[in-house]
Structure formats: structure tokens, C-alpha cells
Amino acid sequence: MPRFTSLKSPSAFRVLAAASWRAPNDPTVLGMIDVDYSAAAAFIARYDAVFGTHLTPTHLVGRAAGLLMRRHPEANAVIRFSGIKLRPGADVFFMVDSGEGHNLTGRKLDAVDALSLGDIERSLRASVNDIRAGNDATFGAGHARLRRTPLWLARPVAKLMSFLANRLGLDMRPMGPPPDAFGGAIVTSLARFGFETGFPALVPFAEAGFIVALMELRDMPWVVGDRVEPRPVLRLCCTTDHRIVDGYLGGRLLKELKALLSDPEQLLTEEECTIWAKDADAPAPASA
């Protein structure tokens, strides 16, 4: 019989993951789309110039997820004792790498369907800076406790905290998560890890209806009219909770997500649209 050795100093995420999942038996549906990123790249360059931001594909996908939950409230639901309940807001959880890919955490932004892309970018940038600088007390304390918790104890504790926060709606801070800490959708990027295709696992205690993962942006052959051209292509992999998002609804979400990213001006708020239009009408600067 092989002799196994203990993993030294496991991250808090590894402890929590090991405590949460047993043998795979949860209902999931997997889906994938490729998006021609040419329009999104041009859009981001112009948006950053107009609004002074530093957008990434993650911001666009997160904003799109919020709009999709507003369009399809049935995808923004949770399972409760009395049945399937709809969330009051389109909240999105953005996964954050707290340092060199070894420890993952994140931030939930409320009512993303009402936020501008600039609001999303600034909020996430501030959160990431606080976490990586060690200025986020909740993140630091929670992860330190998890790393000290033995696996046999972490599993029942995670289930208890999830029950108290998600089923009973109790605010468990600072011991555990607040109610509905992850919202209806999770957005994460696997690009920096070099993934071409990868489907994230549903997190049982998160209770999000779907997770969208961004892959590495690559140049690929793309059919344009009657020609094949090299285009930057963004692959998006989606995992859904089949209890909430079935195959039909999941297909609609992916199709509409692709449409939003292919024409990203649809992601602008009304206020942004006004500024965007004024910028388009401004005369071009004189050449030197």
C-alpha cells in the first residue's frame, strides 16, 4: 500500500475545498463559447481613454453576467426549504487571486446590472489592493482560521456555517460568511494559469446558479464572411447548477453573453452612453 504524506501548510482555499466536496454527485451542466474579441479590445481601449479606467475582459464578463440575471431572473435563484426563491438583486462574485495563484478569495459586488463598468473596475481594484496588502481584516482572519482547522472538523463547520448563513439568513461575520455571500453568479479568470479550456467546479456553500471562467486570450482562425482570418479569441467556460439553470436556459445565457461581448457598447449604462456619444462627436485632434 502506498504511503501518503501530508501536504504542508495547505492554503485556506484547499482546506475549504476538501471540506466541502465528497464524491461527485451534484447536478451540473457544462457549456463553452468562443468569442471574437476584436470588438471588445477596441471597446476597452476607447473606454479607458474616455473614462480613465483599466478595464479587463473580467470586468466585461461580470457586467454582462449582471445584465443576464436581470433579463432572466429565474437564473438568479436559490433553493430554500419552501422551494425555489428569486434573489432581489443581480449580485456577482469576482474571484481574486490573493498572491501567485496559491490562495483564492474574492469580492461580491451588489446590483451589478446597475453598476457602470468604471464602478466595477474601481471597486475590484480597491478590493484586490487591500487583500494583497494585508489590509483586509476579514480575509486575513478567515483564512488564518481555516488553515489551522483540521480537515475532519472543517467539513462539518463549513456545512454548519453554510446552513446558518444561507438557509437561515444569519450574518455569521466574523466567524463565517454573511448571508448569500456569493450572489447569483461567479466570474473567475484562468487566463494567467495558461488554460485553453477549463470548467470551474460549483462551490456548494456559494449557491450561485452559474460560474463563468475566462480562458487565455489566443489568436485563432476565424471565419469572416467568405474568408478565414486570424482573430483574438476569448473562450468562456460555464458551469451551471442544473437545479436552477437547465440546458435550455444555460444555452440562452451563453448565446446572449456572446452577443454582449461581440457588441460591448450594450454593456454601457445610460449615463455612460451619453458621455460615449459626446466623445464620438468630438472633432479629431489635428495631426502634428
TrEMBL record:
Name of this protein: 2-oxoacid dehydrogenase acyltransferase catalytic domain-containing protein
Identify the taxonomic lineage of the organism of origin: Bacteria, Pseudomonadati, Pseudomonadota, Alphaproteobacteria, Rhodobacterales
Signal peptide residues are none
- Domain of life assignment: Bacteria
2-oxoacid dehydrogenase acyltransferase catalytic domain: residues covered: 186-268
Any Pfam family from its record, for instance, is 2-oxoacid_dh
Gene3D superfamilies xrefs: Chloramphenicol acetyltransferase-like domain
